[in-house]
Amino acid sequence: MFLAGVLLDAFQTIILPRRPVGRLRLTRLFFLATWGPWVGLTGLVPARRVREQLYSVYGPLSLLLLFGLWAFLLIVAYALLYFGLHTPFTDPMHPVTALQQLRTCLYASGSTLFTLGLGDVVPATRIARLFVVIEAGTGLGFVALVIGYLPVLYTAFSTREISVALLDARAGSPPTAAELLLRHNFSGGHHALTQLLAEWERWCAGMLETHISYPILCYYRSQHDNQSWLAALTAILDTCALLITTIDGPNTRQAQLTFAVGRHVLVDLGHVFRQERFEDRFRQAPPTRLLEDEFARLCELLSVAGFSLCGDRETHARLTAIRSLYEPHALAMGRYLHLELPQWTPPVPDPARKPDGWTRVADLRSPQALADRLTSHISAQSTATHLQDDGSRHF
Predict the structure, then answer these.
(1) Facing residues of 122 across strands?
(2) In terms of C-beta density within 10 A (0-12 exposed, 13-18 middle, 19 or more buried), how is residue 52 classed?
(3) Closest Cα partner for 300 from 387, 380, 173, 235?
């Protein structure tokens, strides 16, 4: 049963293309036993940059440790089988005691699993020869699976990070829903926004195919500290929530499609990491995102930029209702993985800080392009639907 449990866990983790089941799975117990202490020790580091670096090390390191754990347990499992056969090996060291015989079995199992074949310890019975052949085949298969598993894992990680990196120029760093909408406030911008949401719909479908089957990818951090797959996904869902409930325009249908599959990603990952209890806690607790002051600033930014906003009193209630469908799941995943969720609006510009790359490039445009942008902006303002005075704070 010990050997079968290890092989079944490796099969579910590497080969099975769907969510693994079972609360007592070896891989799940491994992450429960390692992630908590790692978070505790990393939290003692005062410097944020160093903490993020330590968090980023955990994913690749845990993968290597998991492979080592599987190999060690396979060696022990086969050694116990040999030990149960009562001295099945011919050993030039002539072990006498039970402890010496167990050491010989462990040595023979390790050399067989890694196909060393030194020949100093040889099987003395037919059943021992059979188990040696089986273990050698297991070792070859294990090495082949590891070699094939790593490219698949890192290809999925690279595919995920491409879209996260591209969002930097489209929604800021860290990304926000308001910045994403503001940077698409140009002639034909609604077409570009629809295309972007369609790309993120496919990105979310890819997450369902890869991160549900290989949850270890969730521990892999992005290249930059102010980027993460969770922050990017949350910003996209925030944007979809605004387009569905608050902003009048042609992007609503695509926003609904992207929102549905994006929320599906958060819900399924919450089940994989057993975060239901924390999701309920965040659902019942007072909201921590989009408070009154940020909500008012969001309304001001969107209205000044020329977006046509829904002016009825029920808009705020609709936005709150749709946020409750995904925010508790995002907050629970952020708490577990120690990833920060984005705000709804970009931070107030600080003159002391250098502007980001997108802003610097935008400022280098030709005078004619700047004039066209100003004309388009004034036209959009004159045609926008503004909020009523008594409902400007709460829609």
Answers:
(1) 90
(2) buried
(3) 387
Q: Which residues, including other chains, have CB under 8 Å from residue 243's CB and lie 6 or more apart?
A: 249, 251, 252, 255
Tens digit of pLDDT for each residue in 270-321? Answer: 999 999 999 999 998 888 888 888 888 888 888 888 888 876 778 888 999 9
Q: Which residue has tokens 């599959």?
A: 261
Q: What is the C-alpha separation between 372 and 186, in angstroms, rounded? A: 10
Confirm if 185 and 307 have CB atoms less than 8 A apart.
yes
Largest CA distance in the chain: 95
Is 0.70 topped by the overall pTM?
yes
Contact 267, 348 (CB under 8 A): no
Q: Are 334 and 228 in contact (CB under 8 A)?
A: no
Q: What are 229's two structure tokens?
A: 């797959």
Residue 309: strand, helix, or coil: strand
In this structure, what are the phi and psi dihedrals at residue 128, rounded to the nearest 5 degrees?
-65, -40
Q: How distant, in Å, are the alpha carbons of 75, 79, 155 from that of 121?
A: 15, 13, 42
The closest alpha carbon to 290, from 234, 338, 369, belongs to 234
CA distance 71 to 250: 55
Q: What is the residue whose two structure tokens read 């400007």?
A: 392
Helix (H, G, I), strand (E, B) or coil at 247: strand
Give the CA-trace dihedral at 314, 330, 172, 179, to 10 degrees: 0
Is residue 212 within 8 Å of 166, Cβ to Cβ? no
Q: Which two tokens stand for residue 379?
A: 């036209």
How many angstroms from the chain centroid is the CA of residue 77?
34
Residues 149, 217: Cα–Cα separation, whole Å: 12
Sign (positive or negative) of CA dihedral 319, 383, 200, 258: positive
User: Would you place residue 353 in the very low, low, confident or very high pLDDT band (cuts 50, 70, 90)?
Assistant: low
The fraction of the chain above a pLDDT of 70, given in percent, is: 87
Distance, in Å, from the CA atom of 356 to the CA atom of 172, rounded to the nearest integer, reads: 8
pLDDT confidence of residue 87: 77
Answer whether 95's CB lies under 8 Å from 104's CB. yes
